[in-house]
Amino acid sequence: MALRNAEEARAKEAESNRAIEMTFGPEASREIDNAIKVLRGTIEIAITDFSNTISAHGAFDMSQLEAIQNMSAVH
User: Fold this and answer.
1) Would you tell me how many other CB atoms lie within 10 Å of the CB of residue 35?
2) What is the pTM assigned to this prediction?
3) What is the 3-state secondary structure (H, E, C) of the chain?
4) CA dist., res. 29 & res. 26, Å (int)
5) Based on the structure, what is the number of domains in the chain?
6) Would you give per-residue pLDDT tens digits along the chain (75 residues)?
């Protein structure tokens, strides 16, 4: 199942890339790829920072995690 999903995702990605290149040119496809890489890096940093914050506060049980999520949603 996972292999089939991965194959479908790759096929959709290739189709999307072709559509982007035909519509906006090959440079647009490269710019989108670069933007996605930057976004992934930013998400990884945010997850690491969040994990470090949780560890620093000793928040390992679900009630503490939920409290942190609620505080984040308010701010």
Assistant:
1) 10
2) 0.53
3) CHHHHHHHHHHHHHHHHHHHHHHHCHHHHHHHHHHHHHHHHHHHHHHHHHHHHHHHHCCCCHHHHHHHHHHHHHC
4) 5
5) 1
6) 888 999 999 999 899 989 999 999 989 989 999 999 999 999 999 988 888 887 766 655 667 667 777 776 665
